[in-house]
Amino acid sequence: MIDPVAFYKCLADETRLKSLIMIQLEGELCVCELMAALDETQPKISRHLALLRQDQVLLDRRQGQWIYYRLNPDLPEWVKTVLAKTAEANKTFVANNLKNLCRMGDRPERKNACC
Amino acid sequence: MIDPVAFYKCLADETRLKSLIMIQLEGELCVCELMAALDETQPKISRHLALLRQDQVLLDRRQGQWIYYRLNPDLPEWVKTVLAKTAEANKTFVANNLKNLCRMGDRPERKNACC
DNA sequence: TTTACATATTCGAAAAAACATATATACTAA
DNA sequence: TTAGTATATATGTTTTTTCGAATATGTAAA
User: Fold this and answer.
1) Closest residue in B to A78 (Cα–Cα)
2) B64 lies in some domain
């Protein structure tokens, strides 16, 4: 059960919507990757992700020093559809941000520093 | 072209989201019908509908003293999908409001007074 | 043209959301 | 243990949103 108004408040902010779209497209992202892609401060990203986690839209997982966020697979079907369609139809909205996205998983030589 | 953040701000308020869902389900509703269904004041309904009109989500049409609001048929496909899925999946969210909905079109004997 | 009804808009106050800054926690490697 | 990196949270402030109340506009009927 999810409150539709609360869900849409999650999407009604540029930082959160871009984070969600990029996570939808990439599968999983950590805070420092989002900081680099969105060019925003750490507390700002962290605060918005905390909100998405509290509303059960995202799940988090720690791996070493990093905390990765992903979509909650138990979301209702209609919510998954909304998120998928939104990401698919708004790739240009995050195009410049995706350019600045460096995936740490793609660079195992960097064991101890983010982007 | 529609700004996805602005679009989701439209959905991020109980009055607006319920209005949109009911309009999606009913096809077209006027202000006084929404007032009765949502049990809210006239300026409040009117103000929220004005916002939805400004953002091109709704179109309005005057018929006599009443102004009917309907979905803008020229919205992008992904937006229409989001609205349709949201309405379909959240009928219980507006169930009590639909109970209080009196469609003036169904009562042609009332030529000069709303619900 | 007066009266009633439907809707829109304005304006100031209240509530909510977002922010920057500072600080706390947690993990890693030396 | 210490230093460095990543993330979270607390706090006070600013911005945005929402609201109620009053008022204005437009239509219809008498």
Assistant:
1) B85
2) yes
Establish if A107 belongs to a structural domain: no
Q: How many domains does chain B have?
A: 1
State which residues form the domain around B85.
4-90
Q: What is the per-residue pLDDT across B95-108, written as a single tens digit (0 to 9) for each?
A: 999 999 988 877 66
Residues lining strand C at under 7 Å (Cβ) are: A 9, 12-13, 15, 41, 43-44, 47-48, 51, 62, 64-65, 111-112; B 30-32, 35, 42-43, 46-47, 49-50, 60, 65-67, 112-114
**Best interface-test mutation with B: which of A11, A22, A79, A91 has the largest number of B CBs within 10 A?**
A11
* pLDDT tens digits, one per residue of A30-70: 999 999 999 999 999 999 999 999 999 999 999 999 999 99
Q: Are A53 and A59 in contact (CB under 8 A)?
A: yes
Nearest to A82 among B13, B85, B93 (CB): B85
Residue A70 lies in a domain: yes
Q: How many CA atoms lie within 13 A of A22 on its CB side?
A: 29
Is the C-beta atom of A112 closer than 7 angstroms to strand D?
A: yes
Q: Is B100 among the domain residues?
A: no
CATH number of domain containing A83: 1.10.10.10
A88 to chain B: nearest residue by CA? B78
Residue A38 token pair: 């969105």
Edge-to-edge strand list for the sheet holding A58-63: A29-30, A66-71, A58-63
